[in-house]
Design a protein that fits this description.
Helix content is 82%, strand content 0%. The protein has 119 residues and is an all-alpha fold. Helix 2 (36-73) runs antiparallel to helix 3 (79-116). The longest helix is centred in the middle third of the chain and has 38 residues, at 36-73.
């Protein structure tokens, strides 16, 4: 894994957050005017975004695990080690949750596509 400057990573994540916020603001008025095809396309975009988030979490989860292992190697004990353990578990489960969300959104999109095609 290559090292990327932290400020570059944060800037890229900030751009992603800004764009997601813009989409959220647009959708805050509701989706009442969307056709079935448009809802399907929107779901596909949300699923693609979830997929990107899942991919982003991979290196972050790996890094948390590396830091946790370093803490174990240095034989740290007590509450900070317990917190690292819990943090690692939460991050990994959060990534798994995104994987499930990606799958379910894709399934929903597939079912809508079948309806749209008259199946």
């Amino acid at each position: 894994m290559t090292d990327v400057p932290a400020n570059r990573v944060q800037r890229a994540l900030d751009v992603q957050l800004e764009r997601a916020g813009e989409a959220s603001r647009v959708m805050s008025g509701g989706a009442g005017g969307l056709t079935l095809a448009e809802v399907g396309a929107a779901l596909e975009s949300v699923a693609d975004t979830a997929d990107l988030l899942w991919q982003l979490l991979g290196p972050l989860a790996d890094r948390v695990e590396e830091i946790r292992e370093r803490e174990v190697t240095e034989r740290r004990e007590g509450s900070s080690m317990d917190l690292m353990e819990r943090a690692s578990v939460h991050v990994l489960h959060g990534r798994d949750g995104l994987s499930i969300a990606r799958h379910l959104l894709g399934q929903g999109r597939d079912e809508l596509l079948k309806v749209e095609q008259g199946e």
